[in-house]
Amino acid sequence: MTLPIPNGLTPPSSHDIRIAAIDVGSNSVRQIIADVSPTGQIRVIDEMKAMPRLGEGLERTGALGQTALDAAIAAIQRMVTLARQLGAVRIEIVATSAVRDAANANEFTGRVQQATGIETRVLSGEEEALLCFRSALAHFELGAGRSLVMDIGGGSLELVLAKDGLIERVASMPFGAVRLTERFLSPMVRPRGVRQLREHVRDGLRRAVPVKDWRGTRVIGSGGTFTNLAGIMLSRQGVTARSPHGTRVTRVELEHVLDWLQRLAPEERTQVAGLNPARADIIVAGLATAAEVLARFDPRDLLTSAYGIREGMLLEAARVMPVVADPGATREKSVREFAERCHYEEPHSRQVQTLSLQLFDALAPRMGLGAVDRRILSDAALLHDVGYHINYENHHKHSYHLISHADLLGMTPAEQIAIAHVARYHRGPEPKKKHRSFAQLDRVLRERIVKLSALLRFADGFDRGHVGAVGKLKVRWNADALRVTAVEATGATSVRLECWGASRKRALLETVIQRPVEVIAPDGTVVSFDEGDGE
After folding, report:
1. Is the peptide bond before 187 cis (omega within 30 degrees of 0)?
2. Are strands 90-95 and 157-163 parallel, antiparallel or unpaired?
3. Residue 326: predicted pLDDT
4. In 10 A of CB 228, how many CB atoms?
5. Which residue, 192, 214, 217, 302, is CA-closest to 255?
6. Per-position b or e across 352-371, b if 16+ CB within 10 A of its CB
């Protein structure tokens, strides 16, 4: 439905379109209002959620309960009112499993039309799966290899099997968290009920989806089951992330969480850190279903998606088809676009990134760092000064807050938090446990942040004048010291300031590698920093 824009409310760009997407599920009704660009960028304006549990009792009665139906209609009315007030030019409403399977579906859609003037599109299982896949395609790198996108809702499980970003098979099964809870786990979760539930799902998967050529495939999980699983895992790691998107969970970790939760009483599950209390009664069924999918396809791990049907609806309504991304492309694009939005100083940031990676490549084996750490350092170097977007004073702290709250794709929440911390510690005080956000991280992550911060601080010093005077760094590890020689870039007349800057910022690196660091000028002299030199 297309609506006029109220006076004073216009999308921020003439090329963007403001769209509201309302997803009526078996467990919840969720709305997202966002500006969608022609290239598929989604800028969220507002969100609203209600949990009327439309699917509750559906397995037993075959119809939507009147109380839940009334609550859902009221929620949709509020959402449509908000969307119109915020200037949405399109409002899309879709309904999934509960309405699809209900004998009184026409009553529901008719009442929505009467209350809002908007027609509800009741999705088939296949349409639901395709919207989830469209969303995954926009937020993950599915351009190479085999992928499985699964969405567990309140009433159904959707699976999409794709190769090199192209869909090969779609399946929809009645294995939603609300439906399975009512059938197998009410009124209490018992081991026998969980076993029966898993056997039921296992049999259905065996009949519906093949595994030949798909074992070990990349698996992406969409829906509340997975965002809550990610929330639990992040809480255990001490990571406070803006979004659970991109969290990796191994099959063993999922099984451990499932085993733990099924042993807790319902009231105890509501107290679990990272788990939404409103989902505590159905989380076991959702995780048991996910566990059976993983057992069927045997992936290395599971990637959590914070995006699903609603984001797919936004892209569909804006007529945007996401481009299949090659490995690494989504992350690089996301980081670069964020840096550009913060008006970063690109030449300096690129220079520091280059010098940081030269140091990393020379020292990583001795520092116990790997490929994931290299990507974290690369992104932190590019973004270390984005805090200038707010102001110069304490810009390193501003960088931390901007990065930790950014919408960055292609990385895990733990990686994003690490990038934010490494950028924060490129100057100023060294990482300390009295810094609350740093102290709450687990020990392993803290140690990696300290090592990467030491490299970034040192590299940043080698561009003290922001003129790219240093062409490259020659690194030599001696028994008594680490010697780093600065080589002048083509056209540079002197690197004395840069050598002085690096010498000034070498202390943390010396602590990490437990030996002195000597900064050597092109003429072979050692450049030292005297505390009386200022700064």
Report:
1. yes
2. unpaired
3. 62
4. 24
5. 302
6. bbbbbbbbbebbbeebebee
Of 137, 199, 209, which Cα lies nearest the Cα of 166?
Answer: 137
Q: Containing H/E element for 398?
A: helix 395-404
Q: Which two tokens stand for residue 64?
A: 């939507």
Short-list 388, 377, 369, CA closest to 352: 377
What single DSSP character describes residue 277? G
Rounded CA-CA distance 51/460 in Å is: 50
- Strands in 482-488's sheet, in edge-to-edge order, are 470-477, 482-488, 517-520, 526-527
Q: How far apart are CA 201 and CA 176, in angstroms?
A: 10
Tokens 């939005």 belong to residue: 341
Burial of residue 82, with CB atoms counted within 10 A of its CB: 0-12 exposed, 13-18 middle, 19 or more buried: middle
Q: For residue 320, what pLDDT is reported?
A: 80
Which domains occur in the chain, in start order? 17-122 (3.30.420.40), 126-317 (3.30.420.150), 329-533 (1.10.3210.10)
Tell me the C-alpha distance between 462 and 469, whole Å.
8
* Measured distance CA(498)–CA(521) in Å, rounded: 9
Kindly report the average pLDDT of the chain as a whole number: 91
SS3 190: coil
pLDDT tens profile 91-110:
999 999 999 999 999 999 99
Residue 463 and residue 441: Cα distance in Å, rounded?
A: 30
Model pTM? 0.73
Provide the H-helix boundaries in 209-345.
Answer: 224-237, 251-262, 266-269, 283-297, 309-317, 329-341
The token pair that represents 531 in the structure block: 């505390």
529, 512 contact by CB (below 8 A): no
Amino acid at 248: R
Whole-angstrom Cα distance, residue 88 to residue 104?
30
Cα–chain-centroid distance for residue 151? 16
Quickly tell me which residue has 């937020």 as its tokens. 139
Cβ contact 118:300 at 8 Å: no
Q: How far is CA 272 from the centre of its chain?
A: 21
Residue 517, number of CB atoms within 10 A of its CB: 21
- Summarize the confidence of residues 171-196 as an average pLDDT: 91
Q: What is the pLDDT of residues 358-376, one digit of tens each?
A: 999 999 999 999 999 999 9
Q: In this structure, what are the phi and psi dihedrals at residue 210, rounded to the nearest 5 degrees?
A: -80, 160
Query: E strand or H helix at 107, and its extent?
Result: helix 105-116
Gap between the Cα atoms of 152 and 221, Å rounded: 8
Q: Are strands 482-488 and 470-477 parallel, antiparallel or unpaired?
A: antiparallel
Element (H, E) at 364: helix 346-367
